[in-house]
Amino acid sequence: LKVNKTLSEIDLAVNQIGDAGAKEIANALKVNQTLTKLQLLGNKIGPDGAEEIADTLKVNKTLTELDLRRNRKIGPDEGKEIANALRLNPASSLIELRGVPEANEVFQERNRQDKLNGKKRKQSLAF
Q1: In what order do the strands lie in the sheet with 125-126?
Q2: Angle 76-88/47-57 helices, nearest 10 degrees?
Q3: What stretches of the chain adopt beta strand conformation (E)?
Q4: Which of 7, 59, 99, 125 has its CB 3.0 to 4.6 Å from that of 68, i.e. a possible disulfide?
Q5: pLDDT tens sequence for the chain (127 residues)
Q6: pTM score of the predicted model
């Protein structure tokens, strides 16, 4: 993913990915400029992996969809950390975040700002 220049979507659902794997994916996404959709549903990502993903979301500008559902070790605290990361990255293109309902407030604010500024992008949602 670090050197990829063509792949735009990747589905890694139900692959036993834990915190170490999430860290590797997150590090790659910090420099990747082509991936827009990432499916991480049903893995074993916990608090440490969620923290790495949050750090990535502070700088990533290309990811538009991220699915973290059914990673049962990602709780409300980690969800808040991910939401705060999005708040710190106004250039983020992320418009759909599954499995992190704590980010809903951030997306609602972003939608209000877009409307006020006349931006026409798809409405952001988190669930």
Answers
A1: 9-11, 37-39, 65-67, 96-98, 125-126
A2: 10
A3: 9-11, 37-39, 65-67, 96-98, 125-126
A4: 99
A5: 888 889 999 999 999 999 999 999 999 999 999 999 999 999 999 999 999 999 999 999 999 999 999 998 899 999 999 999 998 998 888 888 999 999 888 888 888 888 898 887 777 777 7
A6: 0.89
